[in-house]
Fold this sequence. Notes:
Layout: E1 4-10, E2 14-20, E3 26-33, E4 45-46, H1 48-66, E5 73-80, E6 85-89, E7 99-100, H2 108-116, H3 119-127, H4 136-146, H5 150-156, E8 159-163, H6 164-172, E9 182-184, H7 185-188, E10 194-195, E11 200-201, H8 203-209, E12 218-220, E13 229-230, E14 242-248, H9 249-256, E15 265-269, E16 273-280, E17 291-296, E18 304-311, H10 315-323, H11 333-338, E19 348-350, E20 368-370, H12 378-404, E21 410-414, H13 421-431, E22 434-438, H14 443-455, H15 462-468, E23 471-475, H16 481-498
Parallel strand pairs: 1-5, 5-14, 9-12, 15-21, 21-22
Antiparallel strand pairs: 1-2, 2-3, 4-7, 6-8, 10-11, 13-14, 15-16, 16-18, 17-18, 19-20, 22-23
Helix pairs in contact: 9-14, 10-12, 12-13
Amino acid sequence: MADFVGAVDQGTTSTRFMIFDHGGNEVARHQLEHEQILPQAGWVEHNPVEIWERTVSVVRTAMQKAKLQASDLAALGVTNQRETAVVWDRRSGRPYYNAIVWQDTRTDRIASALDRDGRGDVIRRKAGLPPATYFSGGKIQWILDNVDGVREAAERGDAIFGNTDSWLLWNMTGGVEGGNHVTDVTNASRTMLMNLETLDWDDELLGFFGIPRRMLPEIRPSSDPNTYGVARWPGTLGGEVPLTGDLGDQQAATVGQVCFNVGEAKNTYGTGNFMLLNTGTELVRSEHGLLTTVCYKFGDQAPVYALEGSIAVTGSAVQWLRDQLHVINDAAQSETLAAQVPDSGGVYFVPAFSGLFAPYWRSDARGAIVGLSRFNTSAHLARATLESICYQTRDVVEAMAQDSGVTLDVLKVDGGITVNNLCMQIQADVLGVAVSRPVVAETTALGAAYAAGLAVGFWKSTDELRDNWNESQRWQPEWSAGQREEGYGRWKKAVERTLDWVDVD
């Protein structure tokens, strides 16, 4: 019996490969960043070929670090940035265009047109999503409408689409030599094209975007004993390891945080923030700006659904301080700089670089820093950046309570920013509830490994996974109720200042 499970975690800024043992402990990892391509304001792209090359490299290097062979892995899982759309030629394996990233706003006219004529209400009812630039459907339409020859190739069956999970799985299982064109229910639920009740592509929704059905991958469970195929690229895994897990990154983190009971929630802090609340087998329709999505589907079991609050810019706001403003040299410095002051000095930063996602869904919003005076320093701006992450999370928590009636006792957190102790303390203060970080903070890759391992019996049940979860640190709120409400009130005023900045036809 193989002793380990591997997981490819293809994220917005980097790709990593992690190897876990039966206790859910990290054995090895390797990670590489890829280029962020910004052709013009509001456009964000990645090179799919670079992402695939990075994937091959991180798998090979992590396996070498751990001194493991393919036969040491019981299974392999994949998790990915979800709404980032790739369209490629199944004959040559070459993308027709760069991947259009989930943050990209070029499809704002497509989204607003859907809402004007009533099609948006159908999308909300069937797909659980508002028409927004965030999701894949509009990106596919943009490529079909704007890249020469793609629509004709799609009609012939040569041009195929996938989020980055499908792109990787197709390449991992052979590419032009018989690669499997597949995805899972969580990724499919982020396209505006899948019916949440049938878990299949919906012809009416496809018609809204003019997308030929034959472009789309086969939809599978998130944990599938029938496998997505076997890893076939030479010199790395050699066709020996079954691919049995596939989850969008935020659903993977929910599995990694073992949120298997109704009412359990996690918040992942990455490029953006993503909070998911398990609603069980019941489809809960949001009336307060959240998304209804598939949380996971294990084998032939009924799908489990979730409410999600998606926030576009959190960790990438810290990157902005580093890369564009050069206020800090690395992400860790945001904590030491912000800690130089006791508060933000009245400064509020709303990083609406890609408009505002949940619970506002305003593509006309743009970033704003308000409340500045001569008193303020770079330390205040750094602290306001950390506070913006926490206030945006509170916006989602408030909406979640209204939709579900669930009041959180504790918020499970994971992702890169959770190593910032000051930010996590501010999060507890802003919410007024305890914040808990697990020992394994990279729960996205862990969740993909869990899904893959469950499918092959490496783990027998979700109870085993619960036994693996251990708390690393907990933060208790220290602000008074008055401080909390005064700060949140000013945050809401700052959000108002960002609205109606861009004209959307």
